[in-house]
Amino acid sequence: MVGRSRAGDAGPPAADPAVLVALWLYATVEGWVRARELERLAQSDAAYRWLAGGVPLNYHGLADFRVESVEVLDRLLTQSVMALIGEGLVKLVEIAVDGTKIRASASKQSLKTGAKLLEVEAASPRHDPRAVLDDAVASLPSGGESLSSRKGTTAL
Asked: How far is C-alpha 42 from the chain's CA centre?
C-alpha cells in the first residue's frame, strides 16, 4: 500500500541533516540545482547513492530542506570555495553562465565576486573543516547531531 499510513508502522528512516548538506553541496558543485534531479541522482548515480547511505529520499523533502537551510548551504559553499582557493586548488579566473534566465531579487552588493570572496576570506578566521560542518549542521532548522560525536562515521 504505497502512499497510505497505518498506525503503529514506522515510516522510512529520516535522512540525517549532515547527509542532506553533503548531497546538496556536492550537487551544487556538480551543477545540479533541482530537487527532482538530486532525487534521481540519489537513486541512479553511485556517488550520490553512497552519500545518501541507502536512505530513501524524495524531491519534496530535498526541496524543503534546501529552502529551510539556504543560509547554511550558502555559507558552507562559500567556505568550501575559499578553502579550495586558499590551498591553490582552484582560481576564480573565469565565471561561466549558461544563459538560463532566473527571476531573482538579488542586489549588486549581494553578488559573490572574486574580490568579495577574498574580502570574506580575509575577514573570517581559519576554521577546522570538521568544526565548521558540525556548527553548520547544528544550526540547521531540523537540528542534527555533531559529526565528530558519531561513532563509525567518516567525515564528509
From this structure: 14
DSSP alpha helices (H): ranges in 97-155? 114-123, 129-138
Cα separation, 62 vs 58, in Å, equals 6
Task: Select from 117, 153, 114 the least CA-distant residue to 133.
Answer: 153
22 with 48: CB under 8 angstroms? Answer: no
Q: Are 55 and 84 in contact (CB under 8 A)?
A: no
Give per-residue pLDDT as tens, 85-119: 888 887 776 656 666 665 656 566 655 566 766 77
Return the sign of the alpha-carbon dihedral for residues 135, 33, 44, 12. positive
Burial of 85 (0-12, 13-18, 19+ CB in 10 A): middle
Q: Are 73 and 21 in contact (CB under 8 A)?
A: yes
Q: pTM, whole model, 2 decimals? A: 0.57
